[in-house]
Amino acid sequence: MTGSSVVVFVMRRFAVAIPLLLVISFGVFALVHIAPGDPVRSLLGARASDPATLAAIRERYHLDDPFLVQYFKWLWQVAQGDLGVSIQGNRAVTSTIADRLGVTIFLSLMSTVLVLGLGVLLGAVAAFRHGTRLDRAVVMFGVFGISSPAFVTGIFLLYVFGALLHLFPIFGPGTGFLDRAWHLTLPALALAISVMAIVIKITRAAMIEELDQDYVTFARARGLSSRRITFAYVLRNALIPVVTAAGLIVVGIVAGAIYVEVTFSLPGLGALTVDAVQKRDIPTIQGTTLLFSVFVVLVNLAIDVIYMLIDPRIRFGRVES
Amino acid sequence: MNTAVVGAGQEGPLLNVEGLVISHGAVPITAPLNIAVERGETIAIVGESGSGKTLTARAIAGILPPGINATGAVTLDGIPLLRLAERELRKIRGFRVSMLMQDPFTMLNPLMRCGDHINEMLRGRPEFASRAARAAEVKRRLAEVGIVDEDVARRMPFQLSGGMCQRVALAAALARDPELLIADEPSTALDVTTQAEIIRLLRRVQRERHMSLILITHNLRLAFSTCERIYVLYAGSLLEVGDAAAVERQPFHPYTLGLLLSEPPADIRVPRLVAIRGSVARAADVVDSCGFADRCDWAKQICRAGKPPLVARDASRFTACVRQDEIQGELDALRTAALSAAPMTLRPDPTEGALVRVDALVKTFVGARGRPIRAVKDISLRIMPGESVGLVGESGSGKTTLGRCLVGLETPTAGDISIDGIAAADFDAMAKADRARVRRTIQMIFQDPYSTLNPRHSVGQALSEALGASAGATSPATPDRIAALLADVGLSAAYATRRPASLSGGERQRVAIARALAVKPAVLVCDEPVSALDVSVQAQVLNLFKRLQAEHGLAYLFITHDLAVVRQIADRIYVLYLGEIVEEGPTERVIGDPQHPYTRRLIESIPRSANQRAP
């Protein structure tokens, strides 16, 4: 497969993603109408309901047009980067989201690095020490992590490392890169522990299988160094299923960020969403939901492309004999 | 066991294995083994499955699987290998001892380009520091194993054929120029013609490099044709060791003779193969007796009194048979008798009244990206009642597809099949009664009997189910009928209560045959029915096929890649190549006087030793 056919593959995936995004946007848009009560009231929020404001809202959201026309007009506005106005404080939803996005991205990235780095490392250690006590301890740690929700783990970490040992701050996002990393360590760790079991389990199983493969034995019989065998043979081949699961994990982390942000009182997108749900701030809910959905679709697209790039059997189109 | 097997080398052998015992926890896998390999010498370790030959090879290379231990002494040029740490062993492996394994498709890293397998072996050597120097060396190494197409270095393993992969693997194993190469069944997973090429290549490389070679194989004939000395391993013990030509001329151990006679000869047809009864013993069960005693026709009390040591009987000949002196005359007589050909019974050429007629059959599969794969192109054949027909071809020849079309597992794209006068090309389009009749007329035997037997069903259940499908079956199958079926395939009635997992490969295949016989078929389609079996068991099953044919007037379509097998069983042969029949005719004529170049290549691929080649 040449470079141009990789482009064709990516384009084809994009073509599939677009209708999916349209369906999602339709659902998000319908939120206004699904919410109980009059849409005008939903969009009004806490503002005074004088006729002038009501008329302005009707005009702004085209509520007098037929449903589908409303949708297309809304979609057109979204495409231009206009997600409407938040009912609290009368700010544009896009600028509210932009304020909060930084913390969530930082937290999710940090957590993803922790999950994949630590998870693959622990899974590899467990596989190499397969059947020993260390192996069982690692697997138990993973199971323990996945069975306690992120906010429970978060409170536990806060108590031990924040309140008892005073090693990490207990709230706030921090300013500047290092300070922020220091502030977000505990939340990222709480988030990571809750999904790490998946990575540990997949890595461990895949590596145990790889270690048993003929080509690993053959590599040993040829006297290759253990470093070469570990990285070029065992780890490289075992990472394919991990990459496949990585999409799921990243999505899980971003979803889990909602709880963790609330637990650690971080001003991120998750906290914003929870707040908006409590205040019935429909435009903000629409904005964050849409952003999250686009993110999920793009992550899956990226995983498909990475998968194709790292597994030549997919790239070259294996012919069954 | 104190008979060190030492050759006449001036400075001692390159590899000396003394008292090597391999065990899995407390369970012994081998008795103490002594093996010596001179510089530039080629030896074979011959054994059936479970003999411990692969683990012996891996113990020498120091790559035993976890949980398996080796004790004793393995000395390479004065270095005690078993006592070395893994770090030290790495400097030995590849540089001094290297290994080639059986399955070419699993031996190479599926995510690594072929050339990189050789390239990675060259790194760290100053003369190959630059990328260009390594690339040039990879090219040179591939050329050594007969790959001149430079594109191969850039291909992925799954884009190459098995033979090509095996060549690349050989080049990778040799990339650090070892003094000793251990080749574990290097040709077994390959097609017949490719097998011969790989063995020729191994021989050439061994000679050119003056390298020592240990060939691990189950195939005695291959060992004789390739190696200078033979070690016969059975249930973890060496039963016979000696010069290849001498062992072939006059085997000293009943097991070696049994193996020799079990292998169907390709050049003559014998009335009945001399099979070894029973199945391969486990090393742990024969710790204190001759491992072969239970299957040996000459076993006496003395054979079970203790493990007989390997003792010298002749110049560089060793046998573990304590009764060799007494029985050698009988062994020789048996050998001579078995080699006499059966009288040919010539059948009239098939004309009218064929049981199975296939006319202009075509089967096309849809491959990747909608490309058509033409597995079978325009094949016509006949099977007469009671006739045994061989269908010979390598993988990809379409022989299995044809067999599956006959029993209705595939529907042909075009062409006609008629079975017992009923049009049976499309099983879905047939009347129900016709379909039932065809299914009773034609039955199939598969290569791997284990996967066709439900592991949860006892043998009795499997057979009674089949009996229930036979013509006019009203009452459930009685134990008597099950016992009769089992007796038919040479098993006692007690087998009815056993489950497939507790049976040996040969017994499973017998059960599968009994199940096929339950509906009293007129023709059996046998797809490689003996190729997964050990040589000694293969002969038993082939004899069974012969007997059943005589007793029930069965017709066979024997699908196989093995000309020697087909020689023993088939009256007529069709040679299949890339979906087309390239040659057909009576077995004797096709094998004795092949017309098509492909048939000739197949016949030339049968391993023959110098003794056999001599006119």
Can you walk me through this structure?
The complex is a heterodimer of chains A (321) and B (615). Chain A has 321 residues and is mainly alpha-helical. Chain A has two domains: 3-79, no CATH class; 96-315, MetI-like (MetI-like fold). Chain A is 78% helix and 0% strand. Chain A is built from 13 helices and no strands. Chain A has helices spanning 3-34, 39-44, 51-60, 67-79, 93-128, 133-147, 150-164, 177-211, 214-221, 226-263, 269-278, 282-310, 312-315. In chain A, α1 packs antiparallel against α12 (282-310) and α9 (214-221) packs across α10. Chain A starts with a helix and ends in a 6-residue tail after the last helix. The model of chain A has no long low-confidence stretch (mean pLDDT 84). Chain B starts with 14 loop residues before the first strand and ends with a helix. By secondary structure, chain B is α/β, with parallel strands linked by helices. In chain B, α14 (459-468) crosses α15 (479-488). The radius of gyration of chain B is 26 Å and the shape is globular. Chain B has 21 helices and 23 strands. In chain B, 33% of the residues lie in helices and 21% in strands. In chain B, strands 7-8-9-4-10-11-13-12 form an eight-stranded mixed beta sheet, with helices on both faces. Chain B has a six-stranded mixed beta sheet with strand order 19-20-21-16-22-23, with helices on both faces. The relative contact order of chain B is 0.10. Among the domains of chain B are: 228-338, no CATH class; 356-449 and 523-607, 3-Layer(aba) Sandwich (Rossmann fold), CATH 3.40.50. Classes of the chains: A mainly alpha (321), B alpha/beta (615). At the A-B interface, α9 and α10 of A face α2 and α6 of B.
